[in-house]
Specification:
Elements (H helix, E strand, L loop, with lengths): L1 H22 L3 H19 L3 H25 L3 H22 L3 H22 L3
Amino acid sequence: MHTSRTLLLLAALFAGSVFAAQSTIDDDFMRTVEDTHKSLTGNVGISNAPGSIADARELAVMFAQIEAFYVDKGDAPDAVTLSRQSRELSDAIVKSAGRQDFETANLKTTELSRACKSCHNFYKKS
């Protein structure tokens, strides 16, 4: 009985922390996205499959959080579209790097850079 209550409490705390992560996109979070993107670019450039895959997977998770943030915000349709596109590009990079297809991974990484820049042009604080 006590164990069930503890598990329920832990599940509630975890759910709350996931919601908090999705509802707050701050400068530190965006710096982490930018740093991970730079790492991805380098890893793709040197054909490092494990590094490319890890970075792209991490970015996909972060872009899902960004997408959720802008969906909740409700007044940023371009950010929703661009974050969704960025998540899909990250997933495509995982697949390309997994096949050792670094030509495609590089093209997708370049598209990802453009999507990031487009979103920053709309939404980044000065």
